[in-house]
Amino acid sequence: MKIFIETGHPDYLLSLNDIKDVGNDTYECTLNIRSKWITCERQFFFDVFHIKQFLENLEIMNNHFKGDAILKEQFEEQKIILKCNSLGKVTVSSSLVEHSDSDQSAEISFETDQTIISPLINQFSKLLN
Hints:
By secondary structure, the protein is of the alpha+beta class. It has two helices and eight strands; from the N terminus they run E-E-E-E-H-E-E-E-E-H.
């Protein structure tokens, strides 16, 4: 399964590709995020508990144009954050961390609008069903 944000702009992309259930209510995928010239592709985990919270917060954002929603896995530092303001502007950001011989981190963000929220709700709802 694939979940993605359709921004309508080729310089801004976020997609969760090849999502698979790896047990213990946890999903694994390949995250692709692009903001202008910065691109990152890496393994990303998220869990059912955080999907449900993410969906609840997306519903609030969709209905009231306020709040934020965070997708992550309980024991991982990496996360995807969506923030919505009262004008319907949505900031999509990611915080990605890798601890290894050479620690790495990346913070990537872009702005879009509220039209991305409803399709995301539908895609994540399908994942849970």
